[in-house]
Amino acid sequence: MDFFQKIKEILVKPSKFFSEIEKEKSIKPSIIYISILTIFYSVMSIILLLLFKDYLTTFFLNMFNLPTEQPFSLSKQLIFIIIGIPASILFSFILAAILYVWLMIFGSDKDYKTAYKLLTYSETPSLLFGWIPIINWFSWIYSLILLIIGTHKIYKFSKLKSSLIYIIPLGILLILILILFIMLSLILISLSGQVPQSF
């Protein structure tokens, strides 16, 4: 299965793809796959920044009366890409290790390679569309759905179990992030000495 066929099957027929994933004996194809998508994501993100110059970040800083960031620097972004791409690929191995241990807690009998393949292929929507504002939210949600489908098909967990082992900790994490964001917002408001204009 070539690169583009793999993308199509993951996005359109995920159940079939993950049911047959163990035919892929090595993790080399999945490493190549996520590397290509990571490069694509990084390049498209830079193009987007070149076109819109990070208006959302500027809006946020202005909202809280904070100093505006330095003007967009292409050289800085290129350095970020050079460092960020291998770092992201390396981080995928760490995330796969966490996923591997997490699935073991719930009764997995699969090896690390299987967890790595599940993680990398589930990230397809996020890496393909995650650089697009607004659409990125839907891509992240679909990546989570793919992770759930993959877990159900590969590990033979029930659909409910495959969903809850991700949704419950994710829900807790989102609540903690929301609390942290509210606290940070209050601190920034007090430091700026004024209420944000959007209020």
Record keyword descriptors for this entry.
single chain, 199 residues, mainly alpha, 9 helices, 0% strand, globular
How would you characterize this protein structure?
The chain is an all-alpha fold and 199 residues long. It has one domain (3-192). It is built from 9 helices and no strands. It has helices at 3-12, 14-19, 28-52, 55-63, 74-105, 112-122, 124-129, 135-155, 159-192. Helix 6 runs antiparallel to helix 8. It is globular, with a radius of gyration of 20 Å. It starts with a helix and ends in a 7-residue tail after the last helix. The relative contact order is 0.12. The model has no long low-confidence stretch (mean pLDDT 85).
Largest sheet: none
**Helicity, as a percent range:** over 70%
Number of domains: 1
Label the structural class.
mainly alpha
Low-confidence stretches: none
Distance between the termini: 52 Å
Overall 3D geometry? globular
Give the SSE order as H and E letters: HHHHHHHHH
What is the residue-mean pLDDT, rounded to a whole number? Answer: 85
Q: What portion of the residues fall into strands of 2 or more residues?
A: under 5%
Work out the helix count: 9
Radius of gyration: 20 Å
Count all strands and give the number.
0
Helices and strands, with pairings:
Elements: H1 3-12, H2 14-19, H3 28-52, H4 55-63, H5 74-105, H6 112-122, H7 124-129, H8 135-155, H9 159-192
Helix pairs in contact: 3-5, 3-6, 5-6, 6-8, 8-9
Short description:
With 199 residues, this protein is an all-alpha fold. The protein has helices at residues 3-12, 14-19, 28-52, 55-63, 74-105, 112-122, 124-129, 135-155, 159-192.
